[in-house]
Amino acid sequence: MNRPVPFAYLAALVVPSALIAAVYVAQYGFGLAPCEMCWWQRYPHFAAIPLAAAAMATRGTRLGEALVRLAALAILVSGLIGAFHAGVEYGWWQGPTACSSTNLGSDPLASIMSAPLIRCDTPAWTLFGVSLAGFNFLVSVGSAALVFVLLGRRKQGVVT
What's the rounded Cα separation, in Å, for the pair 149 and 108? Predict the structure, then answer.
């Protein structure tokens, strides 16, 4: 069975794979160590990749469509975490105190010694004022929406 791979399935596999590759290049190639919230954004992409690969292997079946929808949902979750993280970086709201607090509490030395090395409220890198978390939001939410739209078009009989 040599069926063409629908674009929705390709997007669900390529986008998280490319984003994970990009953050590892940033981390190991350019020394941009991830904070805790950066890791939170990676986990859904880690889940999306095998889900999309399994969807491609079972494309044309109900299981394949369910798997690609789960992959798109995981990509969306990563994007929403990225939106939250970007908001923390831009100071729109406060992030988890474990990785962004400046409160020294009753024991300042203990607070300083237990503080994370990489703070979540300070972007490691920006381009045109958009942090990596912001780019993850834009790319992940946009691509997840694209996958859902393409799958919806297939249901209506439009070839994608």
Answer: 51
CB 67 within 8 A of CB 151: no
Given a contact cutoff of 8 angstroms between Cβ atoms, the answer to whether 119 and 35 are in contact is yes
Evaluate if pTM is beyond 0.70: yes
Encode burial over 111-131: b for 16+ CB neighbours within 10 A, e otherwise: eeeeeeeebbbebbeeeeebb
Nearest to 69 by CA among 81, 84, 52: 52
For the chain, 160 residues long, give each residue's pLDDT as a single digit of tens.
445 569 999 999 999 999 999 999 999 999 999 999 999 999 999 999 999 999 999 998 999 999 999 999 999 999 999 999 999 999 899 888 766 555 556 777 766 666 557 888 888 887 898 899 999 999 999 999 999 999 988 666 555 4
Task: Please give the Cα distance from 139 to 83 (Å, whole number).
Answer: 11
Cα 115-41-60 angle, rounded to 5 deg: 165
User: How many angstroms separate the CA atoms of 68 and 72, rounded?
Assistant: 6
- Phi and psi at 130, nearest 5°, equal -105, 125
